[in-house]
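User: For a benchmark we're assembling, each entry needs the component sequences followed by a predicted structure for the full assembly. Here are entry 17's components. Please fill in the structure.
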Amino acid sequence: MSEPAVRARGLSRRFGQLLAVDNLDLDIPHGQIFGFLGPNGSGKTTTIRALCGLLTPSSGEVTVLGKSIPAAANEVRRRIGYMTQRFSLYEDLSVAENLNFIGSIQGLPRRERRQRIGELLRQYDLESMRERRAGAMSGGQKQRLALAAATIHRPDLLFLDEPTSAVDPENRRDFWEKLFDLLETGTSILVSTHYMDEAERCHRLAILDRGRLRLEGAPSELMGALHGRVVEIDGPDLRRVKDAALALPGVESAAQQGLRLRVLLGPGGGDATSYLKNALANPQLDIHPARPSLEDVFVAATLPSAQERGA
Amino acid sequence: MNSLRRIGSVTGKEFKHLARDRLTLGLIVMLPLIQLLLFGYAINTMVRDIPIGVVDLSNSALGRVVVEQVRVTQVVNIVAHYATPAEGQDAVIAGEVRALLVLPRDLVQRAASGETVGQWLVDGSDTMVGGAILGLRQMPLKLEAGAPPGAYQASPPSFEVALFFNPERRSQVNIVPGLAAVILTMTMILFTSVALVREREKGNMEMLITTPIHPLELMIGKLVPYIFVGILQIGIIIGLGWSVFAVAFYGDYLNLAVITLSFIAASLTLGLLISTQAKTQMQAMQMTVFVLLPSILLSGFMFPYDAMPVAAQYIAEVLPATHFVRLIRGVYLRDAQIDQLAPDIFWLLGFTVVMLTVATLRFRKTLD
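Assistant: Structure for entry 17:
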């Protein structure tokens, strides 16, 4: 299919004075996990809600699975799944009751529903909690239940809004395994996160900040683009070195990570390592190039531009 | 000293909460205002202007004199004249008039021989109304031209009074059916409004609206269980009323079902409308209070509708509870039939349709 799963042109959404999403252009391809990476308040949730037809855009056009949103939202709803940031199933219903309810709302006939629920309970390791009330489950279990409910009707496109924010690292890993399983069965996935390790697992990534799309591409591509601009400094008294580094022209950010200082330089500055060696002129420091991480990409992408800094 | 400061901080914070919660703020001001207006102005335990009918079988000048003297007491308001006592009784059962004054064919002879001149047939279910008519029993009449007022003082009372439906004048007879209206108002409106708001508050709504469910389907689905809750409550009230308070149900169960379902429908849809307006369960509860309060005070449950000023009667007419109080007392105590009660039933059904329409229009499947 040449048509992307999601296409947005000039998507904006305003809440009173606040421009939560600002003129967003997006093409989300089929058959991939597409990530939205951004800090809290960057517009991830608002964008996802607008793409699901939950919020009417203030301006711009959205097509999801080839249909215009929100005009054809009802048609599209049968083919998308949405997992909310907050657990939104019924805490006083059991696992099986929750799934049965969602299944019937989604229009699954009784026999198929029973079969599908059995399948989902196996797939998401919930068989032993079939009769457990959702409210009595752990964060990881709730989240697996929510994913099962969001996929009960085998959607073509799945929206996940910070699905792992209330989950420990091990459960997060398992969860991502499930996402790749889903991808295998032909579901395209759009997931928002503020975890770098999660973002790195996505096929493509859009970095959002203050409602704007700052950067888009495959994680490896994005990290590769920073090659030569990231430098690590070992040595004593790093707090002072940090202040000195930040005062240098061309240095965009400096952050201490354990015993090291990680410094990001602006583009087009030549060899970053020798520049810093000369500029800091401190023989006690071990200054060497570092492999760019996604966090570097994120920091570089979300730094205020020169204009914004001036403002 | 530290303790004082901490108490002070909590107090300061609490004031800020109050100032930012408009509904609570409104309740603080409106509650005393409404209560005061209702109790001080609208509610009148001195019953006047009771709507009555007259059957004057004597068709004499003396009959007109008696009727005129009854009228000027201002206790009653003569709204109809009937040709026969049977016709008048039907009007009492239908609730069109609260009492009937029957003057016999031999009125003139009776007056001449100092006997009782007429009979009141009273819907005694409301003890305040019954009491007011009973007060007319001994009223002095002036039956001969030129005689001083009160010259005719029959040794038997001026009128006989027959209290229908509640001859022992027990207030429970009136309270028990009326209570059904108040309890249903409370639970139906509160439950539905809170139930829907809870879905929104807990985030369930966000999940539901991305599914293919239609708003109307969601609303009807949510309302249906409360119909059964309402029926159960009516059952409890009738059962207890009969077993504990000896208020027997004289009516027809089919009629009871028709009026109860109409009222449940009206109340549920009102709750639905509140739910589209309230943002939290607390707000839904506060809004329910605004409906509940006049429903208790103005519906005729506690105080006779006929004794209220016209403005209060207009407000009462808007409330579903007023119509239901009338309906259920009619069915419960007077075995009134559906055709006699049609106007109130139609009103409840119309109310339901309007509320459902407005609620559906207001409920949109977005989070905007």
